[in-house]
UniProtKB/TrEMBL annotation:
Name this protein carries in UniProt: Thioesterase
UniProt organism field: Pulveribacter suum
Highest taxon of the lineage: Bacteria
Gene Ontology MF, one: fatty acyl-CoA hydrolase activity
Transmembrane parts of this sequence: none
InterPro entries according to UniProt: 4-hydroxybenzoyl-CoA_TE (IPR050563), HotDog_dom_sf (IPR029069)
A Pfam family that the UniProt record links to this protein: 4HBT_2
Length: 140
């Protein structure tokens, strides 16, 4: 099943990543759980770049859910291009979307997925209002 990225998504980050030998499973392709690590890597790189780093005694982002559609198998060796999009800033959340391509096959999406990010007050263990600076970044 192919998901559709929302029309109002905003591309915010892109990064290359090498498939490691250990990313493969017994069937000789990248293990399905590893795709979530790839999506996490691009999401964390972007969040770090914009200053959205969790502060254990304060507030920060947490993933509320994550999903992935596996469209084509990826095998080692490969160099990937991960593209991150954001959309739909709400009171406490926003959406992230990721596409995974091989650099040697531009425009061919091998997997796509996303995650809902919720802003959390860590000491209280409760959702917090998405800061205006983050809302501005996501809304663009």
């Amino acid at each position: 099943m192919k998901i559709s990225l929302p029309e109002l998504k905003k591309q915010v980050h892109q990064m290359p990543m090498d498939v490691r030998w250990g990313d493969m499973d017994a069937m000789g392709h990248v293990n399905n759980a590893v795709y979530f690590r790839y999506m996490e890597s691009v999401r964390i790189a972007w969040m770090t770049a914009v200053g959205a780093v969790p502060q254990p005694q304060g507030e920060g982002p947490v993933i509320a859910n994550a999903f992935c559609s596996f469209l084509r198998q990826i095998e080692y060796p490969a160099r990937l291009l991960l593209t991150l999009y954001v959309s739909d800033p709400g009171r406490t959340t926003f959406e992230t979307w990721t596409t995974i391509e091989r650099e040697d096959q531009p425009g061919v999406v091998f997997a796509e997925g996303g995650a809902t990010v919720i802003w959390v007050d860590f000491p209280r263990q409760k959702a917090a209002t998405l800061p205006q600076w983050m809302r501005d970044i996501v809304a663009g």
